[in-house]
Automatic annotation (TrEMBL):
Keywords: Signal. Belongs to the UPF0065 (bug) family. SUPFAM superfamilies: Periplasmic binding protein-like II. Residues 1-23 form the signal peptide. The keyword Signal applies. This is Tripartite tricarboxylate transporter substrate binding protein BugD. It comes from the Bacteria.
């Protein structure tokens, strides 16, 4: 009897200690892992959010860049991190597409993480080199079909959203083009500016300055509706590519088993950051759009990730794009 009482007392102490730890969270800096290079689109979004979230949490949110294999290195690392509330992860569409792109993953996107929140959506733009001989999307499609063996499409590498957008575009117009992969969006854009490649689909965080400077040709945006940052640019859907939509969405995750009270506080910090006028202005300048409240819950992110896995899996497998 005394032994059982001692166990009960010990369990109570452990529970109390755990509750105290969660209540005191965060007691030190929190790390937000970004799976891509510093200065890239996801990194810019992460650092903008982190600066505001630090004020809400009362501790610094440190951004750590962990590169490799289209984000899977970082995802695998976070999945194996202690679920103590001091490691979080921000990733874009690659969280969903990795299951089809990579034959072997060290983690399960749907089952090895806690879901915190979505954050912002970044529209994509369909571009061509400045001297591309087409005035609008209809002429562009006609020219590509007539010269498909001579036209190439740049991507930021395997699994990049630029590659996914390019694959969906080729599927929509019924052609297969030569793909030219680069190590990131910056070199892909440089190649387009230099005329070494013909077509590129990339996000507004990278393309708006080049579009406004007249350095590339813009043929449309990939969202359902026109966007504030490029109000005169028609969507691809309204120009005839029915249901064409590619948006770079960003979700925040934690290792599986991270206590629910910590997830809730982190979710609240994300929501506060998205209401911060400085964050809103920065996102607007980047062409990024803050997601509606319906997407900000952990359940909303989980449901969205599942739908994106179901959407992109068949497209990627049909395109035969895989990595070991």
């Amino acid at each position: 009897m005394q032994f059982k009482q001692a166990l009960a007392a010990l369990a109570g102490l452990v529970f109390a200690a755990s509750a105290h730890t969660q209540a005191a969270w965060p007691a030190k800096a929190v790390t937000l892992v970004v799976p891509f290079a510093a200065g890239g689109p996801t990194d810019v979004v992460a650092r903008t959010l982190a600066a505001s979230m630090s004020k809400t949490l009362g501790q610094t949110v440190v951004v750590e860049n962990k590169l490799g294999a289209g984000g899977t290195v970082a995802a695998g690392s976070v999945a194996k991190s202690p679920p103590d509330g001091y490691t979080f992860f921000i990733h874009h569409n690659g969280m969903a597409t990795s299951t089809a792109l990579y034959r072997k993953l060290s983690y399960d996107p749907l089952n090895d993480f806690e879901f915190v929140s979505q954050a912002v959506d970044v529209p994509m733009t369909m571009l061509a080199r400045k001297d591309f001989p087409a005035a609008n999307l209809q002429e562009m499609v006609a020219y590509i079909k007539a010269n498909k063996d001579k036209i190439n499409v740049a991507t930021a590498g395997l699994g990049a959203v630029s590659q996914l957008c390019g694959m969906l575009f080729q599927r929509a117009i019924g052609v297969q083009l030569t793909e030219v992969p680069f190590q990131g969006t910056a070199p892909a854009m440089n190649a387009l500016l230099g005329g070494q490649v013909d077509v590129l689909c990339d996000q507004t965080t990278q393309t708006i300055p080049q579009i406004k400077a007249g350095n590339v040709k813009l043929y449309g945006v990939t969202t359902k509706n026109r966007i504030k940052s490029l109000p005169n640019a028609p969507t691809l859907a309204e120009q005839g590519l029915k249901d064409f939509e590619v948006v770079v969405w960003h979700g925040i995750y934690a290792p599986k088993g991270t206590p629910k009270p910590i997830i809730e506080r982190m979710n609240a910090a994300v929501r506060a950051a998205l209401k911060d006028p400085d964050v809103a202005k920065r996102m607007e300048d980047l062409g990024a759009e803050i997601v509606p409240d319906s997407k900000l819950s952990p359940e909303g992110l989980q449901s969205w990730l599942k739908s994106e896995i179901d959407k992109w899996g068949p497209i990627i497998k049909a395109g035969g794009k895989f990595a070991d």
